[in-house]
C-alpha cells in the first residue's frame, strides 16, 4: 500500500517542531526580543503562497478576485520580511561586549 | 522554469537556513551571522517560487512592484522605530503574518486550480481542512495582535476587560468554528468559509481583551506561536516544505517563550489565557492603603552619596525605565560610578518589561556591554554581598511578598532578592502598586530609600550629584 504524501509532510512538520524545541531552548534569554522579531520575519515565507496566488491571473485579467488577495498578501508579507530582518539586524548590532567598547 | 522536485529541494534548503538563523541566536557573537542565514533562506524561497511558476508575463512586474512597496514600508518602519516601542512593533508584525495567512487561504479557496488543489466547489478534502484551519488561526492571530498592539501602544487601556459568560462565549465560538469547518467540507459553500473567518476574527478579539498589561509578555509570545501555526497550516495546503518547517519552528518558539514567561510569573498558561489578572485585587488594595506604613524617602543627593560610598551596585531595571526612556541616563550614571572603581552589574527578571528580552535590548541600545547584564538565576545570590541595589522602574519582580505570604497573588513567583542588599534605592513616581495590584513590602523596609520622581529625571539628577 502506498503512503499518502500528507504523512511525509506531517513527519517533516513534527520533526521540525522537535528541532524548534531544542534550538529555541538554546537561545540566550538576552536575545529573546530579536528571536521574536526574526521568527516574525521568517514566518513571512508565507509570501510564497501569495506569489502563487498573484501570478495565477491570466494575461487578460491580471487582477481577479483571487489574485487581488494574493497581491495584498504580498505587501503584508513584504513589510514583515524587510521590517523583521532589518529591525533584528539593528538590534543585534547593539549587542556589544566590554572589549569592543574600549576601541 | 524548474521542476517541482528541484523546487522542493530548494525549499528544504531555505528551511534549513531558517533553522540556522535561530541557532545563531544562542550567543550575541553568532547572532548577526544567523540573521544573514535567515535573509538568504528568504531570498532562495522567493526566487525559487518565481522560477517554478515560470510565469514571466506582466503579472510578474506587478508582483515585484508590490514586493518593493511592502519592502519599502517595512524598511522604513525598521529604521524609524524607537527601541522602546519594540513590543508594539512585534505585535503589529504578528498581525500582518496572520492577515497574510488569511488572504492566502482565501486566494486558494477562490482559485484552487492555481495551487493544484482541485476546482472551485470541488476542492480536495484534506486541502479544504488545512486551508480553513490556516485561515482560522491566521484570523485569530490578526485580530488578537491588533488588540495587543492597541494595549501596548496605550491607545486601549491595559486593564483587563471582562464580562460574565465570557469564557462560555469563547468556548461556544470555538466549537462553532469546528462545526462550520465540518459543514464546509461537506458543502464547499463559500458563505461558510467567510463565516469561519469572521468568527475567528471575533475570537481573536475576545481572547485578548481580558488579559491585563502585566501578562503582555505571555500574550506576545502566544501570538508569535499562533502566527507560526497559521503559516504551517497554509504550508500544508500549499504542500510547501519551507512553510511547514518555518511554521513548526515559529510555533514551537512562541510556545517555549510563553512557557518561560508563565514560569517566571509562577502562573499557569490557562490562568493567563482566562485573564482578569490585576483587576480582581482592587478591594485588598484599598484596605492596605488605609494602614499606610512609614516610608523613608530621599533625593538625588542622598542617592549619589550612598552609591559613591558603595563598592558594588546592582541595577534592577523594569518597564518604568522603558516608559521614562531612562536607559541612556542610566548608562551615564553607571559610567560615573565605574570611574570611581565601583563594580556595577545589571539584574534582569525574565518578565521585566512588556516582552521577553525587552530590558536587554534597551540596555544594549544604551551601549551597555551584554556581559554586564545577568539573568535572575545568575545574579540572585550576589544581592547579599552588594552594597546598593538601584531599582529603576521595576516593582512586582522585587516584591519579597512572593516568598513570604502564601495568600499573595504573586506567591511563588521567582523574585530578585533585592532586600538582601545593604541598602536599596527605589526610583518610582509614587507608592502606587504595580500591575499585579499588590503593595510592595520593600517600600517599608528600613534599608530602603524611596526616590519619588520620574526615572529619567531622577537618574539625571543623580548624575549631576556624582561629580
Topology, pairings included?
The complex is a heterodimer of chains A (103) and B (467).
Chain A: H1 5-25, H2 32-43, H3 47-54, H4 65-94, H5 98-102
Chain B: H1 4-24, H2 28-53, H3 58-80, H4 86-110, E1 118-119, E2 122-123, H5 125-153, H6 166-187, H7 190-208, H8 216-238, H9 241-264, H10 269-274, H11 282-290, H12 300-308, E3 312-317, H13 319-324, H14 327-339, E4 343-348, H15 358-365, E5 373-375, H16 376-379, E6 388-392, H17 401-404, E7 423-428, E8 448-452, H18 455-466
Parallel strand pairs in B: 3-4, 3-6, 4-5, 6-7, 7-8
Antiparallel strand pairs in B: 1-2
Helix pairs in contact in B: 1-2, 1-9, 4-5, 4-8, 5-6, 5-7, 5-8, 6-7, 8-9, 12-18, 14-18
Could you name the key traits of this structure?
heterodimer, A: 103 residues, mainly alpha, 5 helices, flat, B: 467 residues, alpha/beta, 6-stranded parallel beta sheet, two-stranded antiparallel sheet, 7% strand
Short description:
The complex is a heterodimer of chains A (103) and B (467). The longest helix of chain A has 30 residues, at 65-94. Chain A is an all-alpha fold.
Walkthrough of the structure:
- The complex is a heterodimer of chains A (103) and B (467).
- Chain A has 103 residues and is mainly alpha-helical.
- Chain A contains 5 helices and no strands.
- Chain A has helices at 5-25, 32-43, 47-54, 65-94, 98-102.
- The longest helix of chain A has 30 residues, at 65-94.
- The mean pLDDT of chain A is 88.
- Chain B has 467 residues and is an alpha/beta fold.
- Chain B is 61% helix and 7% strand.
- In chain B, the strands form 2 sheets. In chain B, strands 5-4-3-6-7-8 form a 6-stranded parallel β-sheet. In chain B, strands 1-2 form a two-stranded antiparallel ribbon.
- The longest helix of chain B is centred in the first third of the chain and has 29 residues, at 125-153.
- The radius of gyration of chain B is 25 Å and the shape is elongated.
- Mean pLDDT of chain B is 87; it is low at 278-290.
- Chains A and B meet through helix 1, helix 2, helix 3, helix 4 and helix 5 of A and helix 1, helix 2, helix 3, helix 4 and helix 8 of B.
Amino acid at each position: 500500500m502506498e503512503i499518502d504524501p500528507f504523512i511525509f509532510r506531517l513527519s517533516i512538520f513534527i520533526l521540525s517542531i522537535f528541532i524548534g524545541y531544542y534550538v529555541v531552548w538554546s537561545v540566550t534569554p538576552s536575545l529573546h526580543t530579536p528571536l521574536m522579531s526574526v521568527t516574525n520575519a521568517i514566518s513571512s515565507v508565507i509570501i510564497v503562497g501569495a506569489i502563487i496566488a498573484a501570478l495565477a491571473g491570466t494575461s487578460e485579467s491580471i487582477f481577479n478576485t483571487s489574485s487581488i488577495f494574493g497581491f495584498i498578501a504580498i505587501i503584508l508579507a513584504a513589510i514583515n520580511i524587510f521590517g523583521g530582518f532589518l529591525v533584528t539586524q539593528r538590534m543585534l548590532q547593539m549587542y556589544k561586549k566590554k572589549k569592543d567598547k574600549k576601541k | 522554469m524548474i521542476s517541482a522536485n528541484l523546487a522542493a529541494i530548494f525549499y528544504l534548503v531555505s528551511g534549513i537556513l531558517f533553522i540556522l538563523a535561530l541557532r545563531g541566536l544562542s550567543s550575541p557573537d553568532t547572532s548577526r551571522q544567523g540573521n544573514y542565514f535567515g535573509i538568504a533562506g528568504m531570498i532562495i524561497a522567493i526566487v525559487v517560487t518565481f522560477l517554478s511558476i515560470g510565469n514571466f508575463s506582466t503579472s510578474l512586474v506587478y508582483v515585484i512592484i508590490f514586493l518593493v512597496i511592502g519592502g519599502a514600508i517595512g524598511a522604513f518602519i525598521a529604521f524609524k522605530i524607537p527601541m522602546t516601542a519594540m513590543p508594539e512593533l512585534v505585535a503589529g508584525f504578528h498581525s500582518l503574518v496572520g492577515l497574510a495567512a488569511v488572504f492566502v487561504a482565501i486566494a486558494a479557496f477562490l482559485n484552487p486550480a492555481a495551487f493544484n488543489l482541485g476546482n472551485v466547489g470541488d476542492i480536495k478534502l484534506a486541502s479544504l481542512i488545512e486551508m480553513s484551519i490556516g485561515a482560522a488561526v491566521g484570523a485569530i492571530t490578526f485580530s488578537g495582535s491588533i488588540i495587543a498592539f492597541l494595549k501596548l501602544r496605550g491607545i486601549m487601556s491595559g486593564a483587563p476587560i471582562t464580562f460574565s459568560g465570557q469564557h462560555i462565549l469563547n468556548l461556544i465560538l470555538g466549537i462553532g468554528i469546528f462545526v462550520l469547518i465540518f459543514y464546509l467540507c461537506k458543502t464547499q459553500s463559500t458563505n461558510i468559509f467567510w463565516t469561519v473567518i469572521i468568527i475567528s476574527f471575533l475570537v481573536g478579539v475576545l481572547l485578548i481583551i481580558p488579559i491585563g498589561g502585566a501578562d503582555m509578555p505571555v500574550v506576545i509570545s502566544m501570538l508569535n506561536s499562533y502566527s507560526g501555526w497559521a503559516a504551517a497550516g497554509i504550508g500544508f495546503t500549499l504542500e510547501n516544505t519551507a512553510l511547514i518547517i518555518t511554521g513548526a519552528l515559529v510555533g514551537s518558539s512562541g510556545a517555549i517563550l510563553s512557557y518561560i514567561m508563565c514560569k517566571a510569573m509562577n502562573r499557569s498558561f490557562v490562568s493567563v489565557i482566562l485573564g482578569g489578572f490585576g483587576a480582581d485585587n482592587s478591594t485588598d488594595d484599598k484596605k492596605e492603603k488605609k494602614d499606610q506604613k512609614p516610608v523613608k524617602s530621599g533625593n538625588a543627593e542622598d542617592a549619589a552619596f550612598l552609591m559613591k560610598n558603595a563598592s558594588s551596585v546592582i541595577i534592577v531595571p523594569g518597564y518604568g525605565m522603558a516608559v521614562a526612556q531612562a536607559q541612556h541616563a542610566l548608562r551615564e550614571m553607571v559610567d560615573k560610578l565605574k570611574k570611581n572603581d565601583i563594580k556595577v552589574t545589571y539584574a534582569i527578571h525574565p518578565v521585566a518589561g512588556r516582552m521577553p528580552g525587552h530590558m536587554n535590548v534597551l540596555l544594549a541600545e544604551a551601549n551597555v556591554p551584554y556581559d554586564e547584564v545577568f539573568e535572575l538565576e545568575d545574579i540572585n545570590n550576589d544581592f547579599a554581598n552588594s552594597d546598593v541595589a538601584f531599582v529603576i522602574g521595576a516593582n512586582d519582580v522585587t516584591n519579597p511578598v512572593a516568598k513570604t505570604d502564601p495568600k499573595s497573588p504573586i506567591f511563588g513567583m521567582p523574585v530578585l532578592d533585592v532586600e538582601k542588599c545593604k541598602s536599596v534605592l527605589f526610583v518610582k513616581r509614587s507608592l502606587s502598586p504595580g500591575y499585579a495590584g499588590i503593595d510592595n513590602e520593600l517600600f517599608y523596609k528600613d534599608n530602603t530609600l524611596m526616590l519619588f520622581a520620574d526615572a529619567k529625571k531622577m537618574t539625571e539628577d543623580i548624575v549631576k550629584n556624582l561629580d
